[in-house]
From TrEMBL:
This is Secreted protein. It comes from the Bacteria. Keywords: Signal. The keyword Cell division does not apply. It comes from Streptomyces andamanensis. Residues 51-62 have a biased composition (Polar residues). Residues 1-28 form the signal peptide. Residues 31-63 are annotated as: Disordered.
């Protein structure tokens, strides 16, 4: 009974931490300036006049990076937010720019048995810190589930799916990392926060 209670408590704390991190990422954005290329998390709304930011204002208009995959699949990283808990949450959209529906490649889940048994996900994603010579893998909860969007199977032509991935944070001196998704091209993204 004690082990079961502890596991539930850990899952609850992890879920609470993730929810708080996502809320901070969505709400903790400053007002936009006159920059042509705004910071990833700044709200580039010139005509809002300082109103409260909406959830969509937390994402930049221009993606941080575009990673091209097979069959017309495209991943656009819209934000990479560092939080105080030592995590980096990468948000983005998975799009099908192809003429027909595309099956999400199973390789995107990675090849670790613990992650694969929880279904199709973005569990194979990594962040690479070239300067620090380190690779960061997607985090997992206490049951081994990857802290990413799961249940990805097929995307219809023209469809867009919002997705996220959570990684351990590199040192605060590291701001530029390479995002890698299996079967997709790589792209450099800037971590904010």
């Amino acid at each position: 009974m004690s082990i079961r209670f502890t596991a539930r408590t850990r899952r609850g704390l992890l879920a609470l931490t993730m929810a708080a991190g996502l809320a901070v990422g969505a709400v903790g954005c400053g007002g936009g300036g006159e920059d042509k290329h705004p910071e990833p998390t700044s709200a580039a709304s010139k005509d809002s006049g300082g109103s409260d930011p909406s959830a969509q204002q937390g994402q930049s208009q221009e993606p941080l990076a575009e990673l091209r995959g097979p069959d017309g699949l495209l991943f656009q990283a819209t934000s990479a937010q560092r939080d105080a808990g030592g995590f980096v949450t990468v948000n983005g959209v998975l799009k099908n720019d192809g003429a027909k529906s595309a099956v999400i490649p199973s390789q995107m889940s990675g090849d670790e048995t613990e992650i694969i048994k929880h279904g199709q996900s973005l569990g194979g994603a990594t962040l690479v810190d070239s300067n620090g010579k380190k690779r960061y893998y997607v985090l997992r909860d206490t049951d081994g589930r990857p802290l990413t969007t799961v249940g990805l199977t097929t995307i219809e032509s023209g469809q867009t799916l919002p997705v996220f991935m959570q990684f351990p944070a590199p040192p605060t001196t590291t701001t530029d990392v390479t995002l890698q998704l299996p079967t997709f091209s790589s792209g450099t993204i800037k971590i904010s926060g």
